[in-house]
Amino acid sequence: MRERACVVLPTYNERGNLERIVPAILAAAPEIDILIVDDNSPDGTGQLADEIRAREPRVQVLHRARKEGLGRAYVAGFQVALRAGYGRVLSMDADFSHDPARLPAMLAASRDADIVIGSRYVAGGGTVNWGLGRRLLSKGGSLYARTVLGIGIRDLTGGFKVFRREALEALDLGTLRTTGYAFQIELTYRAIRRGLRVVEVPIVFPDRSVGKSKMSGRIFFEAVWKVWAMRFGR
Question: Partners of 34 in the beta sheet?
Answer without folding.
Answer: 7, 59
